[in-house]
Amino acid sequence: xxxxxxxxxxxxxxxxxxxxxxxxxxxxLFKESSAEEIGKICYLIQGRVAPFFEPxxxxxxxxxxxxxxxxxxxxxxxxxxxxxxxxxxxxLAAQELAQKHKHHGELSVGEVSEALLKIxxxxxxxxxxxxxxxxxxxxxxxxxxxxxxxxxxxxxxxRLGIGDATVLDSLSLSKHGDKSLRPxxxxxxxxxxxxxFVAETYFKKGxxxxxxxxxxxxxxxxxxxxxxxxxxxxxxxxxxxxxxxxPKFDGFxxxxxxNGEKVELFSRNLENTTHAFPDIVSGVRKAINAKSVILxxxxxxxxxxxxxxxxxxxxxxRRRKYKIEEMAKKLPLVLFAFxxxxxxxxxxxxxxxxxxxxxxxxxxxxENPTIRISEERVxxxxxxxxDFFNEAISEGLEGLMLKKLDSPYxxxxxxxxxxKFKRSQAGQLTDSVDCVILGVYRGKGKRTEFGxxxxxxxxxxxxxxxxxxxxxxGTGLTDEEFRKVDELSKHLKIAHKPAxxxxxxxxxxxxxxxxxxxxxxDEITRSPIHTxxxxxxxxxxxxxxxxxxxxxxxxxxxEDATTVSEVIKLYNQQFAHRNxxx
Length: 582
Ligand code: ATP
Description:
Layout: H1 3-15, H2 19-31, H3 38-44, H4 62-72, H5 77-87, H6 90-99, H7 109-121, H8 127-140, H9 144-152, H10 164-176, H11 182-192, H12 195-211, E1 225-228, H13 232-239, E2 243-248, E3 252-259, E4 262-266, H14 278-287, E5 292-303, E6 308-309, H15 312-315, H16 324-330, E7 333-343, E8 346-347, H17 353-363, E9 371-373, E10 377-379, H18 382-394, E11 399-403, E12 414-422, E13 433-442, E14 452-461, E15 466-473, H19 479-492, E16 493-494, E17 501-502, E18 509-511, E19 516-520, E20 523-527, E21 540-544, E22 547-551, H20 564-581
Helix pairs in contact: 1-2, 2-10, 3-12, 4-5, 4-6, 4-8, 5-6, 6-9, 7-8, 11-12, 13-18
The structure holds adenosine-5'-triphosphate.
Adenosine-5'-triphosphate binds near residues 223, 246, 253, 338 and 420.
């Protein structure tokens, strides 16, 4: 396919504010794509040249892109930057300047993808110059509409708002005529997190090829997640009278992929974080006795002198991107391994939890200070749950995870095979809600200083692949937090409501749904204003007295926010909880 054709699709995708139209346009695009290029197209429509977990970044700042545009169209960098400020988007600036040149755009999708990959690959001395020249040469071979979109890719500002589920629906529609294959495609995606790979396999080997996809070391697995229940008795009804219980560590999830000496780490939101945690990487090399492995654990900062777990605020300091070695010494992490998914060339996710746990125990060396196995107790009664829960809380941990002994590992799903019990404050909900910032209200009065005065936040409707509103937050943020939101939202501001946002409320400006906040609220109430879970009577759900607990932008993607069905469950559990307390 000519890149020019893809760019025309970009235009159509950009112009729609309805998700169903996105699917329609995408499925037409996929119908025109060959098996050789479908993978690349899946990355390019999300503004990338590789799956998002690969640390391949084009890595160009605004001034570098402006320089490349200037050189391609005989303008100075400053002239380009001026036009960019006027237009508010670098792509629009490139498009306007490209109009006056006679470039026809005969490059194929593959050639553009290759050129962008080459730019991403430059490193070492003279990188800036090489990147600028290569982008300039690429722009010279593109027509104005292609130039517009290509100029936005290095800056991460190609905002088509296409979610993974939308791509999967469209793949099914394009080849199968309807969306019914989405669950099978999604299953393969959950195992590999690689849309391009799934699409290419589907185009080359059909649905039989998709069904035979297994875990692959180096491709992150979308994590299994826990359900919530209001009481220990309820949990026992689900788990039976024999189940495992482990402390719930309040750190961050780490997936370890080891193949021989090669070790890679992935975060909860599937980013490659290998470079950030050299202590865990070397711990894995020493402590894991197996040739190839995918395992999961929770990393938490730990004081070896006093044997105490440090609070989340301390642990999270390890996620900063600077002074990595120094921080590794100052704040050592312990990785508490809690599940094994792959061992010596075999995907073992279908084995029951108790067998996976035994295998996990058999490959972790005892006495390693960094890699340990999470404590596990096999319990039978509600009273044992509350004893262990209180013990965990008194050690400064977050609560308990209860696990079904005979359950497989269910990638990418929340289910009752795992049940979480978290510390909660009296009168509050039994869990916090992870919301996505959808819009921003400008600050008034004292808040003008921060730019941001309040936020419109939403949750994720996973059935519709949409973000729906659940609350406005105006208080409960510290000055520092307001400043942080201001900084983040500046980069994410968009001119119109994104296609996948459903809202009756109009904030001062919309932002790309990206930043996840963990929110505690007093209560969930029914609301005619918000679109979250709206029923035929026009009533949705809303958070009452919301306040910020922490930013989760480092470890949750927007689609990992709390879902509508979870909020409805939390709403119903409030009553069970209150009745239990009576
Ligand atoms: P939370 O907001 O509570 O961290 P989450 O949405 O990230 O939740 P949940 O399914 O609600 O995910 O809870 C599971 C999380 O708890 C895991 O992602 C993991 O990071 C953490 N965790 C801590 N200890 C354990 C454990 N022993 N077993 C499994 N997960 C654990």
